[in-house]
Amino acid sequence: MGTWNTRGLRGSTLEELVNRTNEQYARKKLALIQKIPTPITPVRIDKEQRHITLAYFEQRSTVDYIGAVQGIPVCFDAKECAASTVPLANIHPHQGQFMDGFEQQGGISFLLIFFSADNQFYYLRHKRLKEFWERMEGGGRKSFTRQELEEEFYLAPKEGLFIPYLDGLQRDLKLRD
C-alpha cells in the first residue's frame, strides 16, 4: 500500500475546482454530487501544525465522486495530467471494475481529466475508457493520447462554472439514446 505523503497533494487544485463546481450545481438544484473520502490511517502527525504528515490507505478507493444528476446516478474520477499522453496506470483496475458495475446498474460513469499544461478539461466517457483499457490488455498502448479523444467532449469554459461537466454528461446521454 502506498503512503499518503508519497503522492503529495497531486490533483488538489483539480479536486477543489470539482468541489466548487459541485457546490454550484447543488445550489442550482441541477445535481447532488459528493466527494468520496479516501480512508486513511495516520502514522505521523505534526503536533505543532496539527496535520497528518504520513498515513497509509486503509483500503482501495473506488471513484472520487458519486451522486445524482436530475435523477440519473453518476460516478466519476478526476485525474490531472501535465502531458498530452494519459497513462492508463493512473486508472486502477478496481476503479474500472467499479465503474463497469455502476454502469450495469443503470448509472453513468466517466473520468474528468484536467490537462494542466493547456488548462483544458475533458469528459472521458466510460465506453471510451474501456476501449483504451481493452486495447492495453490486448497488448497495445498503455496510454492514450489527446489526438485519440473525441473533440466534442472537451469542456468549454462557462461563466459561473469552474468545470461544466454536465455539458459532457448531456452529450454522453445523447449518444446512449
Structure description:
It is a single chain. It is built from four helices and ten strands, in the order αββββββαββαββα. A hairpin with a 4-residue loop joins strand 2 and strand 3. The longest helix has 16 residues. The protein is globular and about 55 Å long.
Mean pLDDT: 87
Q: Give helix and strand order, one letter per element, not per position.
A: HEEEEEEHEEHEEH
Q: Which strand order does the major sheet show?
A: 1-4-5-7-8-10
Number of helices: 4
Helical fraction equals 25-40%
- How far is the N terminus from the C terminus? 41 Å
Rg: 17 Å
How many strands appear in the DSSP assignment?
A: 10
| Quaternary assembly | single chain
Residues in β-strands, percent:
25-35%
Summarize the main sheet. 6 strands, mixed
Spans of at least 5 consecutive residues whose pLDDT stays below 50 are: 1-11
> Structural class, from secondary structure content?
alpha+beta
Approximate shape: globular
